[in-house]
């Protein structure tokens, strides 16, 4: 079986303050098929939230308590553990280098990544490929793998948690099950 997906792939996920149009990135994570992975919490900028970020009791623009509950990422966590956007972007870009980037939600993740890159004043053009392209490639292979089984195994062994690194690892797990070397 031939793998027509680039040998140097990386899976990316971003978490955000909400799903609203005024949301902004709270965490970025990545995972490679070889098991290397990482993530960064992202310190919000005053321009994103409409007030002093250190005032975690304030009503931040774009913040959703539902998203906080889902991701377990609090305002305090972002302020205490988050990296400034320029540092988070630098760490991410150095980690993924020239890898072909895949995500399961490119329209959302690309918007949130662009907000991060804009805040870091980085003009890189990043392209996200849809994870569904990997499925499409896999089913074209002779004796293609069982996609349902791969997804089931991923849910059992590497479930999505709505944390960026773990969700990227989930995609890498599926990739490893359906795209033999």
Structure description:
The protein is of the alpha/beta class. It has helices at 46-49, 65-71, 75-81, 85-96, 106-119, 132-139, 147-157, 164-178; strands spanning 9-16, 25-31, 37-41, 100-103, 128-130. The chain has one domain (9-178): Nucleotidyltransferase, domain 5 (2-Layer Sandwich), CATH 3.30.420. It contains 8 helices and 5 strands. A hairpin with a 5-residue loop joins strand 2 and strand 3. The longest helix has 15 residues, at 164-178. It is elongated, with a radius of gyration of 17 Å. The chain starts with 8 loop residues before the first strand and ends with a helix. Mean pLDDT is 91; it is low at 1-6.
Quick recap:
The chain is an alpha/beta fold.
The averaged pLDDT comes out at: 91
Q: How many runs of DSSP E, i.e. beta strands?
A: 5
Structural class: alpha/beta
Helix percentage? 40-55%
The topology string of helices and strands comes to: EEEHHHHEHEHHH
Q: What percent strand?
A: 5-15%
CATH topology label = Nucleotidyltransferase, domain 5
CATH-defined superfamily: Ribonuclease H-like superfamily/Ribonuclease H
